[in-house]
Design brief:
Blueprint (H helix, E strand, L loop, with lengths): L12 E2 L2 E9 L3 E8 L10 E7 L6 H15 L10 E5 L2 E7 L3 E3 L12 H20 L12 E4 L4 E3 L29 H4 L8 H17 L9 H10 L14 H10 L11 H12 L11 H13 L1 H13 L1 H5 L16 E3 L11 E2 L7 E6 L6 E9 L8 E6 L8 E6 L11 E7 L2 E8 L7 E8 L2 E8 L7 E8 L12 E6 L3 E11 L5 H13 L2 H14 L6 H13 L5 H12 L6 H17 L3 H14 L2 H7 L2 H18 L4 H15 L5 H16 L3 H13 L5 H17 L3 H13 L5 H17 L3 H8 L3
Antiparallel strand pairs: 1-2, 2-3, 3-4, 4-6, 5-6, 7-8, 8-9, 10-22, 11-12, 12-21, 13-18, 13-22, 14-15, 14-21, 15-16, 16-17, 18-19, 19-20
Length: 784
């Protein structure tokens, strides 16, 4: 079906949605307030806004409409309207979105007067933070104006109408060079000139600056009798400073406007995030970072621009008069996928040379190390290497990341073993954290052809990969993964290094990538910086401010977890930290890794706060998800030692008051000590066994003492004392023959000291008496 659709009235239906009233019209469609009348993706009775394309043909408008749907589906931000449903009504496509009970920002400007400066700055900052998320996804809005910014009764701002949006990297070709689409008053000079290839994020930043200009002064930055005249002014005329129209305007806020609306894109803010951060600084009473373009530079650029005035005006006139001809050249939208807002982005320059290697004696006499530029936060390091076919056994190649002390951070190690035959037999790939082995795999690393090593650390996920293209064209990939429950942090936790054995490993190329920024980057970045610097009180205040301003953000979970980390580091707020970690651990909608990290921190704090029963429940939750070797490898050794000592000291205090709980704590202490030292391992098992004997639980005590007697990591004297305890427990369960054999084994062991052997003979003699064998008892007591 083609042609325009008849206007709908209250009671009409658009698919399963019943119309209440018309809300307004845009460039392509009409928006109605509706509610779901029958079963559909929206709950019955819920108010929604339904945007219906007026033209039902298969041409350009429909393709733009479909593209808007894709964009809304790809973006997740409280300041961007979500897409709830799509469909067709009488051949006309429609989009279903949540209904926002608010008013467009242009309704705030009345009688040609500007609004409160702080209110205007807050509206622009919220719009920019939402816009930044769209830019991270590769989407330009291209029609930002006060009418496309909606503010509700709570002051929350949302971006509307992505109908003219486009991907700057070629995702859409619906707008050919020379086309001018959008609202002229808010267009940037490059957009007004129809220079599609020059559009980018700074184009949208200009438009937000133009909106802010109008909110502050009550009038557009450029105005004229007709659209073409407006476009010519935007291209050629200097911007009148807003302070001339509003003398009380704060200088810093005027600076933000002037930088955002600079004629040359290179003179504007580099990103929406950067402009939002300056507005937040203004609202917080701090000085903005932007600086105005110097007068000489401005004069020179205006001179150059006026030399092109005639050509620019001719181009605008040409565009205005030949729109129909240009429309014939438009092509269908590309189907390529939108870039992932959380993708990795190149940090090092493409094709950059491999840094120079220098000797590094602490890592071995033949070790060489190259230092790469530091990267804060998530990082991925990729190295293409080639191993000499004659590489001797024991040679290594290592990638090191987040390494506060060389060899003490995260490491991916390729360890060469076996004879230098070129077969790679006996090689190993290892993933380490502070000298603890997290994961490993036996491999056969090829010699003489390129191999790719990748070490990736993002939040609590650690991943390592070895890629071999294969001699016969059959690539092989070896992958190691680990969940890092307590990531290394600190001011120097961002170093990146590459280590090799001299003359054995040739490095062909290196690539460093960082994680693309997430939502609300400007609001969270400062807090993260303060936390990594160790300024926990200031970081906590910034996280709390973020949560007040953005309670519904998808990043709120991360902010709550980081807030609790800061509170745990300050003695006066440990209780608050425990409550925060507990709440995070009980978040039913969170990812398992997030829940487990919160659970681990809550467990640690429960012990510090003497909440033993809660600590036990939390520890069981952790143990149900991870075996203890995995847990021990993921947690810093200092933390494990503290936990071990906490369990032991608290178990000693509970021996009389609550022996059952003391037993569990001694056993937990022993389990943790198994990965740290042998002393607490032996004491924990021995004390747990003694308490079990006192409780009359002889069978369990017997098994505990057997663990003590048979653990080869324990010293001989500890194991022999364990064997004596085993014999005692065997007697208590009635297995006297087994007890006799245990005593005899101790007596006959040449490693048993004479004093211990005498005690074993004494107890064996006592056992013989119990067995009514007095002659044998006498012989044992005499040493026969």
């Amino acid at each position: 079906m083609s042609g325009s659709m008849t206007a709908l009235v209250a009671g009409d239906r658009i698919g399963p949605y019943q119309v209440r009233r018309r809300l307004g019209s845009g460039g392509m469609g009409t928006v109605y307030l509706c509610e779901a009348a029958v079963s559909c993706p929206v709950p019955a009775g819920k108010p929604v806004a339904v945007k219906v394309l007026r033209s039902g043909n298969e041409g350009e408008d429909r393709r733009r409409f479909e593209r808007e749907a894709r964009y809304l589906q790809s973006l997740r931000h409280p300041g961007i309207i979500r897409l709830l449903d799509t469909g067709e009504h009488d051949g006309h496509p429609y989009l279903v979105m949540p209904y926002v009970d608010g008013r467009p920002v242009d309704a705030l400007v009345k009688d040609g007067r500007g609004i409160d400066q702080r209110t205007a700055a807050g509206i622009a900052a919220q719009a920019l933070e939402a816009l930044h998320v769209a830019h991270l996804a590769g989407i330009l809005h291209r029609d930002l104006k006060p009418g496309n910014l909606m503010v509700d009764d709570q002051g929350k701002v949302r971006l509307l109408d992505f109908g003219l949006a486009a991907g700057p990297m070629g995702e859409s070709r619906l707008t050919a060079t020379g086309d001018v689409l959008g609202t002229p008053v808010y267009m940037s000079p490059e957009q007004a000139s129809g220079m599609r290839d020059h559009l980018g994020p700074r184009t949208d930043i200009y438009s937000i600056g133009a909106c802010l200009y109008e909110l502050l002064t009550g009038r557009p930055a450029f105005d004229a009798d007709n659209s073409m005249a407006v476009l010519r002014k935007i291209i050629d005329d200097p911007l009148e400073p807003p302070s001339r129209l509003r003398p009380d305007l704060a200088r810093d806020l005027e600076t933000v406007v002037l930088v955002a609306m600079a004629k040359e894109p290179r003179d504007r803010y580099r990103s929406a995030e950067e402009m939002a951060a300056d507005l937040r600084r203004f609202l917080a009473g701090r000085r903005v970072r932007a600086r105005r373009t110097g007068r000489l530079r401005t004069a020179w650029r205006l001179l150059v621009r006026h030399r092109r005035t005639a050509a620019s005006a001719g181009l605008v006139l040409f565009v205005a008069l030949t729109g129909v001809a240009i429309a014939a050249k438009r092509v269908m939208a590309s189907r390529q996928a939108l870039p992932d807002p959380h993708a990795w982005v190149e940090e090092s320059a493409p094709g950059a040379a491999v840094p120079a290697f220098v000797p590094c004696p602490p890592l071995g006499p033949q070790a060489e190390m190259a230092t790469l530029p530091s990267v804060s936060g998530p990082v991925r390091l990729t190295a293409v290497i080639e191993i000499d076919p004659a590489a001797p056994p024991g040679s290594v190649a290592e990638l090191l990341a987040s390494d506060p002390d060389i060899g003490r951070g995260y490491r991916l190690r390729l360890e060469l073993g076996g004879a230098a035959t070129g077969s790679g037999a006996g090689d190993r790939l290892l993933l380490l954290r502070q000298d603890r082995l997290m994961a490993s795999r036996d491999i056969a690393a090829a010699r003489g052809r390129p191999l790719t090593l990748v070490l990736e650390h993002a939040d609590v996920d650690l991943r390592a990969v070895l890629e071999d293209p294969g001699a016969g064209g059959k690539p092989e990939t070896t992958e190691l993964r680990f969940l890092d429950l307590a990531p290394i942090e600190g001011p120097s936790a961002s170093g990146i290094y590459l280590v090799r054995r001299k003359g054995v490993v040739e490095v062909r190329s290196l690539r460093v990538e960082r994680h693309r920024g997430g939502e609300f980057v400007s609001a969270l970045a400062l807090a993260d910086d303060r936390r990594l610097e160790g300024n926990y009180a200031r970081a906590a205040a910034l996280y709390e401010e973020f949560l007040r301003n953005h309670p519904d953000s998808p990043q709120a979970r991360d902010a709550r977890l980081r807030l609790a980390v800061c509170q745990a580091a300050v003695p006066t707020t440990v209780e608050q930290a425990y409550a925060g970690f507990t709440a995070c651990a009980q978040d039913a909608g969170a990812e398992p890794a997030y829940v487990m990290v919160a659970t681990f921190h809550a467990w640690s704090l429960a012990l510090r706060l003497n909440r033993y029963e809660e600590a036990e429940h939390l520890f069981e939750a952790i143990r149900s998800a991870y075996d203890l070797p995995t847990l021990a490898a993921a947690v810093p050794e200092q933390t494990m030692r503290q936990l071990r000592d906490d369990y032991f000291v608290r178990a000693e205090k509970l021996e009389i008051e609550d022996p059952e709980r003391a037993v569990r704590m001694y056993l937990n202490c022993a389990e943790i000590a198994r990965f740290i030292d042998n002393q607490r391992l032996g004491l924990g098992l021995a004390n747990a066994g003694d308490l079990l004997m006192g409780l009359g639980r002889f069978e369990v005590a017997l098994e505990t003492f057997r663990r003590l007697a048979e653990d080869g990591r324990l010293p001989g004297d500890v194991r022999r004392k364990g064997a004596m305890k085993v014999a005692e427990a065997q007697r208590m369960v009635g297995d006297l023959a087994a007890a006799e054999a245990t005593y005899l084994k101790l007596i006959e062991d040449p490693e048993t000291p004479p004093e211990e052997a005498r005690w074993a003979r004494l107890w064996l003699g006592d056992l013989c008496c119990q067995l009514a064998r007095p002659d044998r008892a006498a012989a044992r007591l005499c040493g026969a």
